[in-house]
Design goal:
Two copies of one chain form a homodimer. Chain A is mostly helical. Chain A contains six helices and three strands; from the N terminus they run ααβααββαα. A three-stranded antiparallel sheet of chain A has the order 1-3-2. The radius of gyration of chain A is 20 Å and the shape is globular. Chains A and B meet through helix 1, helix 2, helix 5 and helix 6 of A and helix 1, helix 2, helix 5 and helix 6 of B. The first copy, chain A, binds a DNA duplex through helix 1 and helix 4.
Chain lengths: 168, 168
DNA sequence: TATTGTTATACTCTATAACTATA
DNA sequence: TATAGTTATAGAGTATAACAATA
């Protein structure tokens, strides 16, 4: 009976975790679908949104190295390069040489990019947040951020292990 | 002073919501990155994982129409077609004609697909859940599922509006 | 006419490796 | 030698439109 109970407990745990990850998967899909649609007037995808949003951070406003930006966004520098290229073509970001290290390039918003964010994207995104989080109290949001942050740390551990840093 | 306070309240709300969505964005990225890596021995992506997982549901075991599967996964039927094609090439799913409606195709797992899921994928995914949810109590998981489900309903509303169904 | 599913196209994103230029 | 960034390539996913077969 012990073995059977243990099996049942494992099944319950599987079901709940499975449900949780399926919801997360669906939320991820819908975030990209509805987010990209919300910003379609500006031809901005959610990845580009994340980059532009990061560049408005006070710490990054004077420019941020590609590597640092990639680490912040949790994407590889190679894949960030593609997104940056598209944003540069649209004249929303620009690259300057870091005078402290000639290998490094500092990425920052252009005037046009800043204006796009402040005048167009931010209001649209504020509306988007309002709708996507309707029914959420401030407490709910704080709890959810906490859970997502906790899961994110676990994901980062999983990712580090996969790169052989924590080899068993 | 009222206007200023209102502005500050809006900023606080913006900051919290922005943080929440950035975490969600990062979790989405990491789910695909670590999930696909966890299943790389079988060349299964997270989208294919979702399809195969759906097909193991008791309700779908005898076959499910493409449209119903797409609705369940929250993807378009066109995009599902591509994923199904890749899974069919690998011999993990098969299509049969619905005898009740000759237009419809019922998708179901093949023996090989069922075996891949039971013998290989499920154990790997169970480990993956354990690591990705380490530190989460059952209560935590229930709360998180609840929040994700709530957000998902909001996303679906946003999506319906965008398709002109609820036009203001 | 409407619906089911498929095909076609164009683009973005991702993973990976190889390259350059600096350090 | 190691690091910062770029370029190149192949594959997967996504949005959208158009199409064939069936209802």
């Amino acid at each position: 009976m012990v073995a059977k109970d243990a099996g049942e407990a494992r099944d319950l745990s599987w079901g709940l975790s499975n449900r949780l990850f399926f919801k997360l998967y669906q939320c991820a899909n819908m975030l990209h679908k509805t987010g990209t649609r919300a910003l379609e007037d500006y031809s901005i995808t959610t990845q580009q949104w994340a980059v532009l949003g990061a560049l408005t951070r006070p710490a990054f406003e004077k420019g941020v190295a590609v590597n640092d930006l990639a680490a912040f966004l949790l994407v590889t520098r190679q894949n960030l390069a593609g997104v940056l290229q598209r944003l540069e073509t649209m004249n929303y970001v620009e690259r300057t040489v870091d005078s402290n290290d000639n290998r490094s390039r500092l990425i920052r918003l252009t005037i046009k990019g800043r204006s796009l964010w402040d005048a167009n994207m931010r209001p649209v995104i504020a509306d988007y947040y309002r709708e996507a989080l309707s029914g959420f109290s401030t407490e709910d949001k704080i709890h959810l951020v906490h859970y997502l942050d906790k899961m994110l740390r676990n994901f980062n551990n999983l990712d580090s292990e996969a790169h052989g840093e924590g080899g068993a």
